[in-house]
């Protein structure tokens, strides 16, 4: 029996993870659940799964869950927790074997580090943890002998392709990208696209923030940074290729010229289950890829004029230090502002680029968790200050 803690259980990844659990009764058990503010969804999950520890982002949401649970379900909960401390409590519960980090944003960073210190396997679906603190997290994992298994479909694919191959034999990693909904939109029209347009992803069903990141290709930029830490590979050996069909999830090129690719349907339950069960492979609750019907596999290089956020991510990775922290923080503020109608779509890249430029002239420390949090707060403040100054058609990156 593999015992799980799910951080972000009411989000899209968390819900898919619980579908995987339901498909394997007697093999997977949920010990802990943590979520943001969706108390109703948490109540439904807790009634079904009977966790021993529950965490919510705020006191009000946690109180609603406690008051709404049946007496039988509540009796099985030995710990109720709130905020970042709640995430830590769920992730470090002594009965947990594997922690799925599916929270969006940066709130779970302390919980991941605490889970590593407690010897838990990490199934990582959150990019921001490694973008902000990749050196710290992976050093801690090595020191404790803890596995960090990627749940992102691209990194999960690379993990599968690398199995059994020494890193010395690897020439480069190739991350595939769908190109999002604006792959062919005229550049001059991008400033006018709406949040509804950006949220209409052509192949994947994801949360709002990550879907917008896919539209700007910041999502892929963050994955490049994440891949650097997961696979100990420098920026110049990590490539991105646009693959609109999203059938090939990523590839590895070896020194002899061989290229290994992982293919599958666009369903996150497959990489989630892989991270729960590796090195074993179990039957999965996903449809099979019907290659007999014919596969249309096309690839193209990304246009960095169309997707400047991808260029910014490479620049931040090469700059190192606090630059990836600044990149991520500025992007989160810009994306939230776009979704709230305060910023045009092209203003996302404009905001990120301006904050990165300002950061390049400062000495920012990112060598400790406290320092990283300080840089994150600074970058968020600077991005928020810029949002009000960017208007459609002004200061935008085409």
Assigned CATH class of the largest domain: Mainly Alpha
CATH architecture of the largest domain: Orthogonal Bundle
Radius of gyration: 21 Å
Main-sheet strand order equals 4-3-2-1-5-6-7
In total, the number of strands is 11
Q: What is the residue-mean pLDDT, rounded to a whole number?
A: 92
What is the CATH homologous superfamily assignment of the largest domain?
Answer: RNA polymerase sigma factor, region 2, helix turn helix motif
What CATH calls the topology of the largest domain is Rna Polymerase Sigma Factor, Chain: A
Distance between the termini: 52 Å
| Overall geometric form | globular
Tell me the strand percentage band. Answer: 5-15%
* Major sheet: 7 strands, parallel
SSE-based structural type? alpha/beta
Record keyword descriptors for this entry:
46% helix; four-stranded mixed β-sheet; Rossmann fold; seven-stranded parallel β-sheet; Rna Polymerase Sigma Factor, Chain: A; single chain; alpha/beta; 398 residues; 11 strands; 2 domains
